[in-house]
Amino acid sequence: MKAYIASRERLSRHATALCNRCTMHTMDTRPIFPSWWRAGALAYTAAGLVCVVSSAAFPDSETAMLAAITGALPWSLALLTLDLAPGVAQTALLLLAGGWAVNAAFFWWLALRRPAHRLPAQDD
Asked: What range does the domain containing 101 cover?
């Protein structure tokens, strides 16, 4: 009886060691290459920087301003509330930069969040 118990303990230790060895390499299951959300968030952030900086550097360029307004949607709709007063261009540029920043933060949140663990379906 003692021999049986000792052999069971050795087998369970061996099985535990094998199991631990198998899961050791799979602890981090995230892929090495970033997900499509990460690539998209990076592209959106880079495009936002280019659009906002080009709008600030070339204020007469309608194309740069239109690209900045389009990329900052829906926040750029607040431009409709601005009245034509001195300093409206700086206010508009700050509004567009803020819109890009909020959208980029949302994309980065989507890119960096961990996927939710789903419970197996229960049969009734």
From this structure: 36-112
CA distance 39 to 37: 6
Q: Which two structure tokens, joined as six digits, stand for 33?
A: 């290459």
pLDDT in tens, 56-105: 888 788 888 888 888 888 888 888 888 888 878 788 888 888 889 999 99
Q: How far apart are CA 119 and CA 10, in angstroms?
A: 34
Instruction: Examine residue 74 and say whether the peptide bond preceding it is cis (omega within 30 degrees of 0).
Output: yes
pLDDT of residue 105: 92
The answer to whether position 122 is within a domain reads no
User: Do residues 95 and 76 make contact, with C-beta atoms less than 8 angstroms apart?
Assistant: yes
Instruction: List phi, psi (to 5°) of 27.
Output: -65, -45
Burial of 48: CB neighbours in 10 Å, binned 0-12, 13-18, 19+: buried
Domain assignment of residue 5, yes or no: no
Tracing tokens 């094998």 back to the chain, one arrives at 18
Asked whether 41 and 107 are in contact (CB, 8 A), the reply is yes
